[in-house]
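As a warm-up, study this chain.
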Amino acid sequence: MGAVVIVLLSLAACWPVALLPHDPYAADITLRLIPPAWEAGAEAGYLLGTDALGRDMLSMMVHGARYSLSIVGLAALLSLVVGVTLGMLAGYLRGWTDELVMRIADIQLAFPLVVLIIAVVAVLGPSFGNLVIVLGLAGWAPFARLVRGTVLSLREKEFVEAARALGASPVHIMARHLLPNTITPIVIYLTFDLARLLLLESSLAFLGLGVQPPTPSWGSMISDGRQYLFEAWWDAALPGLAIVLAVLSFNFVGDGLRDALDPLNRQND
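Now compare it with the structure written out below.
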């Protein structure tokens, strides 16, 4: 079920603007706060109603998925590349490389993450590229610690010793022998990290530090609709529901992968 929701959200993120029911940027004050189709007072053509500016909620949510999920996906990829690379180097080379990488990771993990991200984004400015870089670089440390721990247990194995005896370089050993054996915990953690990043991105957008208007994102839609909670609940509740479904889906997929790829579970089965 989680995978199905993720696929649907990915399709929504790729959906062309020209094929949306309405222009997500077009405001019409005469159509403001139209309720969803199942509520009294709904109008044909507005399945999920409209917001305070008369923009179609369905079109905005589908189009907003493009920015929310793109930022989260690219930030997770950046965290993955940086964290796996540094963790691999720290675990295999040991010595001063290990000490330097782990101390930098400890320093970063010691800071309150949300406060650190808000401060950096406020200084650099809220833009798509800045959000990807800040969220990505703020999340590499857990990947590095995970990979380092796995590599430390693998570097003394017989197949690694055999590769060294055959004259393989450290880069070859890390890329061809160690990295494939760390894929499982990396993929499992990545799914949980996507959920965490989506919550962070939505929080920044809610505070006005995400992609800027008129570009829609789920967090900014909640922020715009919070003042109409009693008058038009759908304005904030529907994008909030999209965030909840996405986060739950990433967590469900992570739990499923952990159960499916855990050797102990396979032995018990």
